[in-house]
Design goal:
The protein is mainly α. The chain has five helices and four strands, in the order H-H-E-E-H-H-E-E-H. A hairpin with a 4-residue loop joins strand 1 and strand 2 (about 105).
Length: about 280
Amino acid sequence: MTAASAAKRERLDDDLARNSYAEHTRLLGDQYVRKAALLEGWGTEQLSYLRVKETNANSHEAVVQLSLLDAYEKAMVGATESLTSLRVLDGEIVARKYETKLSSYTYERVAEVRATDNKLGALWNSLQAAHKEKKAVLEDDKARHEFKEQVELSALCFVDMHTKLTAWADEKKKFLYARETVDSVEKASLHLSLLDAYGREKKDLTGGSIAALKKLSSEIQTAKYSSPLSTWVHPELPRLAGLEKALLSAWAELDTHASTKQAWLDDALLREQLRAKVY
């Protein structure tokens, strides 16, 4: 074989080796592009989801949204592993270089690969920031609604207690207003004993139900949810305070009426005692 033939054969062998190397590199590049496109599509879709602010009407809805976010977090773990694997492929492609004394080859789309990697990196940063913000908002929604629901339940209990105590006061007001027919010592003594029983019942209610209502009212009036993201207080605080004020006013009036009735019955007893002596 002549020197010229040997040189030609060497060049042809080199061309074949270089072209084979380049073909394999391009195949890796195509694989990278396909995987990158899938990750970019997934990430873009998830970013849209993360940037949506759901309107949660109660704690249950917030819990549902947090469970959906938890599913995203698990999917993100897998996607991040895929991104890590893709970056290994990226590094392999960029590092590939064919070089001999006769020729050399590097991947033609290195700049595009690097730009794609930067784009995916920026997308992942956006996903992390959006996830952090969404999770904070959802956890705040859940906490606020749980607080709200507890206060609203307390308010319902307060209104129920107020209704029952007001009904009791209205009933006893009629009793205290009444001026029964007292025409004997026995009847006077009976009505005085009924008045005494009323006094004991009212004392028990004052130390029990009224004290509990005032405590509950104070808790409701001072209840406030506050965080860097939101605040909440019961929207009907003035009305609830008005209910308490009206009940306590009626409660105090009962004492006045009781004193008046006590004096009236004491006088009736004395009168009947005197009548009994005369007759």
